[in-house]
Amino acid sequence: MSSVSTQYQRVLSGMRPTGQLHLGHYHGVLKNWIRLQHEYECFFFVADWHALTTHYEETSVIAPSVMDNVIDWLACGVDPGAAKIFIQSHVPEHAEMHVLLSMITPLSWLERVPTYKDQQEKLKEKDLATYGFLGYPLLQSADILIYKAGQVPVGEDQVAHVELTREIARRFNHLYGREPDFEEKAEAAIKKMGKKNAKLYKELRRKFQEQGDHEALETARELLKTQQNITLGDRERLFGYVEGSGKIILPEPQALLTKASKMPGLDGQKMSKSYNNVIALRDDPKEVEHKLRTMPTDPARVRRDDPGDPEKCPVWEFHQVYSSVDTKQWVQDGCRSAGIGCVDCKQPVIDAVISEMAPIQERAEDYLNDPKLVQNILNEGAEAAREVAENTLEEVREVMGLDYD
Ligand code: TRP
Ligand code: SF4
What we know:
Elements: H1 4-7, E1 11-15, H2 23-36, E2 42-46, H3 48-55, H4 62-76, E3 83-87, H5 93-102, H6 107-111, H7 114-122, H8 131-134, H9 136-145, E4 151-154, H10 159-176, H11 182-192, H12 195-211, H13 214-225, H14 232-243, E5 254-257, H15 285-293, H16 314-322, H17 325-336, H18 342-368, H19 371-399
Parallel strand pairs: 1-2, 2-3, 4-5
Helix pairs in contact: 4-18, 5-9, 5-19, 9-10, 11-14, 12-13, 13-14, 15-18, 16-18
The structure holds tryptophan and iron/sulfur cluster.
């Protein structure tokens, strides 16, 4: 059984397999995951059920995307030795967690999640008035809570889903964290920490409850994380007891906001499949070169000797991601004086993008040639994930009264 201190350090994130990954995913999501995997216990999964909520009429894109996405994660440096990588539907515990949480979820909480209406508006061509789509954010809550993840790296658009998850966790703990003899059990647990720590815990608890001192609350939590002599159940009790509530069975996660990717698309908008402005991680170098050669520049530069303004040019945004200070200066001067042409200006970007992608594509090729290896990674990931998920579920079933042994 892992200790609360590692539990609360867990990081979990998922990605919907609905197409090819592109440079925006690499710079905006994957580089972040790759950094986190060395700092935390990480769980990264392909959310194939979430893809079904919007793609139930075109399910054929899902399976190839699942494999391609995983291969691209691996090729970019997500390390199966450091992070658990798996497919959501290989861990059916998520579904049981979802159904159990659905029992306590007020319909209005789901109806007011902004993505519910937004996506229905945006994806008008699809009928998203389904039970599955309404439950999308709750399924996400189940994904998160089943690992007791402390941090969830997501983009801006997903913050409301993490917020819902926090509310669900609070409601769950409120409903099922109560025990008839909670107070006695908590007091007994305090004693087990030893005189010094017990005294400190009580002091911090008083400071929080009497004066609302949040620093004391944090310190108390830190103190609990380091206690070796108490059981997991006692720790959950004492987490709750500082705040005056019941046991904290499902801890509230934090959104770890991924800064908006600096990766621009070929047209200067954010790189996104729906804007049709992407460089896919699998595009071959010829295609990459073609896309960059034909991308728009400052519209004021009609002829070679018209001066331009990098601020009005998407190529400049690529330079900001890829170029050295010197090259950027060369662009600024050359563009404004018409000293360089747009073809010249694009060359360093073309070179940089292609050389960034080369090792990724090479590694992807290795995985593509060895599907067994990818299967093994996914099987091992699912196995490790299920072990953690099953532990949480056992606890959840028990407190919900579904314990018939
Ligand atoms: N909804 C997320 C997205 O569209 C994907 C996702 C599913 C997810 N489950 C998750 C992200 C759990 C973080 C945690 O990007
Ligand atoms: Fe854009 Fe470079 Fe052309 Fe200036 S010179 S308009 S920055 S591509």
